[in-house]
Design a protein that fits this description.
By secondary structure, the protein is an all-alpha fold. The chain has two domains: 2-93, Alpha Horseshoe (Serine Threonine Protein Phosphatase 5, Tetratricopeptide repeat), CATH 1.25.40.10; 138-171, no CATH class. The chain is 62% helix and 2% strand. Helix 1 (2-19) runs antiparallel to helix 2 (23-36), helix 1 packs parallel to helix 3 (41-54) and helix 3 runs antiparallel to helix 4 (58-71).
């Protein structure tokens, strides 16, 4: 019973330190718990949050979240782990050596492989000259705006958009609408 009480107290201390922004203290406490209870998804998830949102050590946080996903049976834990991974990936893309980006197959691409993967789809784009020869189009065809506007100035349908409907109702002999 004593071990469970110690666990609960230390977990609460780590959580409180994290919430209060004392991330180093929170990390130190949760690191001890994870060392003693390496298969506990609660401790791993809190560790992921501390390292992701608090200390901004995203690669370490991703590792913690991945371990939560592999050991947790509760879908809520898995969802929180996925959210943490998504958040961390926003900040690892292109930042420093060893940054990781999900490759779509459940794995991650390192910085070295990311540039190659990002470039590949772009190389297949057609860079034709569709817009190089705009001379074939008469871009001044609508130059005389006054001619177009005068066609509509005499129209009553723009004064009352419901005029046509009112005329149709009157044709039916209905006097009140």
């Amino acid at each position: 019973m004593g071990a469970n009480t110690d666990y609960a107290q230390e977990y609460q201390q780590a959580e409180t330190a994290y919430v209060q922004g004392r991330y180093e203290e929170a990390a130190s406490t949760i690191d001890r718990l994870v060392e003693i209870y390496p298969d506990d998804p609660s401790a791993r998830l809190l560790r992921g949050h501390i390292y992701c949102y608090g200390l901004q050590q995203y690669e370490l946080a991703i590792d913690e979240y991945e371990s939560v996903k592999s050991m947790a049976s509760d879908p809520v834990f898995v969802e929180y782990a996925n959210q943490g991974i998504d958040y961390a990936l926003q900040y690892t893309t292109g930042h420093g050596a060893g940054a990781a980006v999900e490759n779509g197959s459940g794995g991650y691409l390192s910085d070295e492989n990311f540039d190659e993967a990002a470039r590949s789809p772009l190389e297949s784009l057609d860079t034709g000259d569709e817009f190089d020869d705009l001379g074939q189009y008469d871009l001044n065809a609508f130059e005389d705006e006054g001619a177009i506007a005068s066609d509509f100035e005499d129209s009553d349908s723009f004064d009352n958009p419901f005029a046509a409907n009112l005329e149709a109702v009157a044709d039916l002999g209905i006097t009140e609408v």
